[in-house]
Write a structure and sequence with these properties.
By secondary structure, the protein is an alpha/beta fold. The protein contains ten helices and six strands. It has helices at 30-57, 67-74, 77-96, 102-105, 108-126, 128-132, 141-164, 183-195, 228-235, 246-263; strands at 15-18, 23-24, 172-179, 200-206, 221-223, 239-242. β3 (172-179), α8 and β4 form a beta-alpha-beta unit.
Length: 266
């Protein structure tokens, strides 16, 4: 596990587990905006291309004499309306799951998880095609093929976009949470704001139920230590600062580290 500072002694400062990923500002970085725009174009192409590819592949044996005639028979106003609606739904699903929000797609793992979810939901919408197919040319098995094809294609295209359009390191800002609500947490928060201004956005704090936070942190509590995995998944956190005393809270520190490893924060 990379980026983990040694746990310090009771009198020492807080420890942290840091992720390598950084957050470019979507408002100040043209590269980030370009990557999102290219991703949108790729997603649209995948929705159309995967649907047509699966449809043709599952009907190869049923083609009439001419391939052009086969396509012409199915290019109707009704089918074009269905296809347009399907693409609009696909784009909406991608937006809802966060595939066009930089804080969700800056890390490859987070982006790919959302791709799988989005393609699954889009495939559910695709069930309308076999349900409304009078000829039976579009079968229910094709929906599963679409899910697999669209997921792989979207991952490949987004990887290409990620490679070609790299976010500049100079515009990065890290999302972070602090584990602990005691004096160490307040000290760490003050140090980050004073010595590294603009480098971190502290999303909030986590601690156990039996540790009541001071008034200054009341509005920033994200939950308990049992909630850490869900918090990391919802907020795409880059770094987790552990501000707990080693001697009295060692078991809690280990729990936090193990939770971070499970969700891919390294």
């Amino acid at each position: 596990m990379t980026g983990l500072d040694p746990v310090q002694q009771e009198s020492g400062g807080p420890t942290r587990q840091a992720a390598r990923a950084q957050r470019p500002s979507a408002h100040s970085s043209p590269e980030v905006g370009l990557r999102i725009q290219l991703s949108q174009a790729c997603d649209t192409a995948v929705a159309i291309g995967a649907l047509l590819a699966v449809f043709i592949a599952t009907n190869v044996g049923r083609m009439p004499e001419g391939f052009r005639d086969f396509l012409a028979l199915r290019v109707t106003v009704k089918n074009l309306v269905f296809l347009t609606a399907f693409v609009i739904i696909a784009r909406l699903v991608c937006r809802v799951v966060g595939l066009y929000q930089w804080r969700h797609i800056k890390r490859r793992r987070s982006e790919f998880v959302r791709v799988v979810v989005a393609c699954g939901v889009i495939s559910g919408a695709g069930l309308a095609f076999p349900a409304m197919s009078a000829s039976g040319a579009f079968r229910y098995g094709a929906v599963l093929y679409f899910w697999v094809t669209a997921t792989l294609a979207m991952m490949v295209l987004r990887t290409i976009v990620r490679t070609l359009v790299a976010a500049p390191e100079s515009s990065t800002r890290r999302e972070a949470i602090i584990v602990g609500t005691g004096p160490r947490s307040l000290q760490l928060l003050t140090e980050l704001r004073d010595t590294r201004p603009g480098e971190y956005n502290i999303v909030g704090f986590l601690d156990t139920d039996d540790h009541r936070p001071p008034g200054a942190l009341q509005g920033s509590i994200l939950g308990t230590l049992d909630d850490i995995e869900s918090v990391l998944m919802r907020n795409a956190i880059d770094e987790v600062f552990i501000a707990l005393p080693i001697k009295s809270r060692y078991a809690d520190i280990q729990r936090v580290i193990e939770s971070c490893e499970r969700v891919g924060v390294r």
